[in-house]
Write a structure and sequence with these properties.
The protein is 43% helix and 20% strand. It has helices at 13-25, 36-45, 63-72, 92-99, 111-122, and strands at 5-9, 29-33, 49-54, 81-85, 103-106. The chain has a five-stranded parallel beta sheet, sandwiched between helices. The longest helix is centred in the first third of the chain and has 13 residues, at 13-25. The chain has a single domain, classed as Response regulator (Rossmann fold, 3-Layer(aba) Sandwich). The termini are close together. It is of the alpha/beta class.
Length: 123
């Protein structure tokens, strides 16, 4: 079953608004969280989420810790995580992948690249 639901976890309201507006216009059902803990709570409640778009730099619990938690949780580990972050220095992509993210997209988001990844992971 294709899960057309996306969870965006990002503490930047402007980035979230722009990305959610685009994704909804493309027909995706979207959930959003302004922090990692809130995002994990949504994942545990909404069983039909097909993919997570995760900002990596957030206060409290960062995206690296949240991604590791998701990948170590038996009920969540199957959900692909795409790191969406302004962290674009050498080694940042590898750090995201080590934390458990399947893919990495730097900000500002290349919409064509994001759509390619979404089609690859959730159709």
């Amino acid at each position: 079953m294709i899960k057309n639901k996306i969870l965006l976890i990002d503490d930047d309201h402007f980035n979230s608004f722009a990305l959610l507006t685009f994704l909804r216009a493309k027909g995706f059902e979207c959930f959003s969280a302004t922090g990692a803990r809130e995002g994990i709570e949504i994942l545990l409640k909404e069983k039909e989420i097909g993919i997570v778009l995760m900002d990596m730099i957030m206060p409290d619990m960062d995206g690296y810790e949240a991604t590791t938690f998701i990948k170590e949780n038996a009920t969540l580990m199957h959900i692909p995580v795409i790191a969406v972050t302004a962290q674009a220095m050498e080694g940042d992509k590898e750090k995201c992948l080590i934390a458990g993210a399947e893919e990495y997209v730097s900000k500002p988001v290349d919409i064509e690249e994001l759509m390619r990844l979404l089609n690859e992971y959730i159709g």
